[in-house]
Design brief:
By secondary structure, this protein is α/β, with parallel strands linked by helices. It is built from 21 helices and 19 strands. The longest helix is centred in the middle third of the chain and has 15 residues. The relative contact order is 0.10.
């Protein structure tokens, strides 16, 4: 039997899992020479949340990162994680944007495209796979793993055959929650190997404590490649240690042939680098066995806890975990991976806070209406009808969702030119704007300042206490931006001593126009903490009770705020404002 090959995820999934995707390129390049000598199958170094994090938090151009890493790793293939028709954003893109993105990523340094779809809908692979094949690069089709009544070994084998027929060069089992048990992994690999002879890679997070055994049994069953992470950035919500797996297989028919001494040097380097990011780390470092019952990915679990804290509902985490199972079933058993994990998780939060499906997020409605693709199983028809009614649609979409999206690259290019104020723009900048149109403009303005830097001294920064006494002595509310564990929050301290807290996109939001006071009309309050992203009607418009007047973004999802009576609408806060739960945002006169 051939030796087992390893893909190390240290440059992408490791720091995404452990410290909020904050590693800067400057901390990667010094060790690339040694990483390049190991003999990995690949180094996963791009895609996933790294693109978003680079422009949102690091002031770093993700395309320049890719080019730099390619230059520094001439002998080792670079792998990226691509969300099929979603690319790296949170919506489906037109086929021309998908083609342009893949072509540019291949040119700038990607050698292996690991493509997945949150619903495992093969139709959502087609455009990205065709584009990658056209570049001559390796296409790896990933199956998102879930444990539900629908997801059987036979179904996974069927998917593997479908992906092979689409044109994949290799396959991957993507176990984002650490739910793949060792003996199940053995049976799953055997079943897939019966229907296709494509190389098979296993990706399993360590969150539940099973991953080392899972990888060993997968190798025993015939898996060809395993995902690991150098030990100093392994375990917890990350992955199994590279050195551990190399030593388990050493001297056996699965021997990786990797040099343990070289791996230990790399581990030592990242042990020091990890100290730079201490303030972004979760306190969770061990095995979270709650996931074995809730089946919620570790990152999603910590995110839910944070979201509930923002909403002043930390005591409802157990109710939300139970509700997730209900929502996942009603939504057709989608695997819980980006973006379906956010959609299902946020909807579960809203169900607990407001009653089951009394408030559907925009993304929930789109998923129920088929705009993300075909769900693995049938959805709850009553919930689907509620979504269709809200969207004013007669029936669900049953065709490939991207068929409804006209070519959009030229339009995005013109918009990018306007933002940059130039007659010509790079393809990379157009694609950056396409992925994150709300974040890219600020990034373009600040890009010349260069990336942020982190050091070990940043681990526990001293935060001076705000002078609240003088600020509130005049009887006016005092406003601050407070950073907690790397996240900014707008804090309003009122004269009576109470506080209103809302998540802040950045410190600049503290300088946003002040909220207006109600003038006697019926007040509409924000149902949750979040950001006012747009008005659905103009100021002064006549509205009926139940009409949508504001769209608020909360927990990465969009939620409609509706008029509570008929009348004329007046907005009390401008778009872009961070608001707290129950803060007045409009009134009806």
């Amino acid at each position: 039997m051939a030796k087992i090959k390893l893909t190390d995820l240290v440059l992408r999934d490791a720091h995404q899992s452990l410290f909020a995707t904050r590693m800067v390129t400057a901390d990667m390049l010094p060790i690339c020479d040694k990483l390049d000598k190991v003999g990995y199958f690949a180094l996963e170094a791009w895609g996933g949340a790294t693109f978003d994090s680079a422009i949102r938090f690091l002031n770093e151009d993700p395309w320049e990162r890719l080019k730099s890493l390619k230059k520094a790793l001439p002998n080792t293939p670079i792998m990226m994680l691509l969300r099929g028709q979603n690319l790296l954003g949170y919506r489906h893109y037109a086929d021309d944007v998908v083609a342009k993105f893949v072509e540019t990523a291949a040119k700038d340094g990607v050698d292996i495209f690991r493509i997945f779809d949150a619903l495992n809908d093969p139709r959502n692979f087609q455009a990205a796979t065709a584009a990658a094949k056209k570049t001559g690069k390796h296409v790896q089709a990933a199956i998102s793993y879930a444990v539900t009544p629908y997801h059987t070994i036979e179904k996974y084998a069927e998917l593997a055959k479908q992906y092979a027929d689409i044109g994949a060069d290799s396959l991957c089992i993507k176990d984002m929650s650490g739910l793949l048990k060792p003996f199940d992994a053995y049976e799953l690999v055997k079943a897939i190997k019966k229907v296709t002879d494509l190389p098979l890679e296993i990706h399993s997070h360590a969150t539940t404590g099973m991953s080392v055994a899972t990888l060993e049994k997968a190798a025993e069953a015939g898996a060809d490649i395993l995902d690991t992470v150098i030990s100093s950035l392994s375990m917890g919500t990350s992955h199994s240690p590279t050195e551990t797996m190399a030593e388990i297989f050493r001297g056996t028919e699965y021997d990786t042939g990797l040099d343990i001494n070289l791996l230990l040097e790399i581990a030592s380097y990242f042990r020091d680098i990890r100290r730079h990011y201490k303030k972004f780390e979760s306190s969770f470092l061990g095995a979270d066995t709650r996931i074995l019952v809730s089946q919620v990915p570790g990152g999603m679990l910590s995110n839910l806890e944070s979201q509930l804290k923002e909403q002043g509902a930390s005591d409802k985490i157990d109710a939300v975990l139970k509700e997730i199972a209900v929502v996942q079933k009603d939504f057709g058993y989608p695997p819980l991976v980006t973006p379906t994990s956010q959609i299902v998780g946020t909807q579960a939060v809203f169900n607990v806070l407001f009653g089951r499906y009394n408030k559907l997020t925009g993304e929930s409605m789109d998923l129920l209406a088929g705009k993300y693709g075909k769900t693995p199983a049938d959805k709850n028809p009553d919930v689907v009808k509620k979504a269709l009614d809200a969207l004013k649609m007669e029936k669900e979409i049953t065709h490939r969702p991207a068929d409804d999206i006209p070519n959009e690259y030229s339009k995005l290019e013109e918009e990018t030119k306007k933002i940059l104020g130039t007659d010509s723009v790079t393809t990379e900048d157009v694609l950056t704007y396409a992925m994150f149109p709300k974040v890219a403009p600020d990034f373009f303005k600040n890009r010349a300042k260069g990336p942020v830097t982190f050091s070990a001294e940043d681990a526990a920064p001293a935060a001076p206490a705000p002078a609240m006494a003088s600020a509130t002595a005049s009887g006016q509310a005092a406003k601050y931006v407070v950073n907690v564990n790397g996240a900014d929050y707008n804090v309003t301290v009122r004269p009576e001593g109470t506080m209103a807290i809302a998540p802040a996109a950045n410190a600049a939001s503290a300088a946003a126009p002040a909220a207006a006071a109600p003038s006697g009309g019926e007040v509409i309050n924000a149902p949750v903490a979040g950001t006012i992203i747009r008005f659905s009607v103009n100021e002064g418009s006549a509205v009926n009770s139940g009409d949508t007047v504001i769209i608020i973004e909360s927990m990465k999802m969009e939620l409609e705020i509706k008029a509570t009576k008929a009348g004329t609408v007046r907005f009390l806060v401008p778009t872009g404002t961070q608001v707290s739960a129950q803060q007045p945002v409009a009134e009806i006169n």
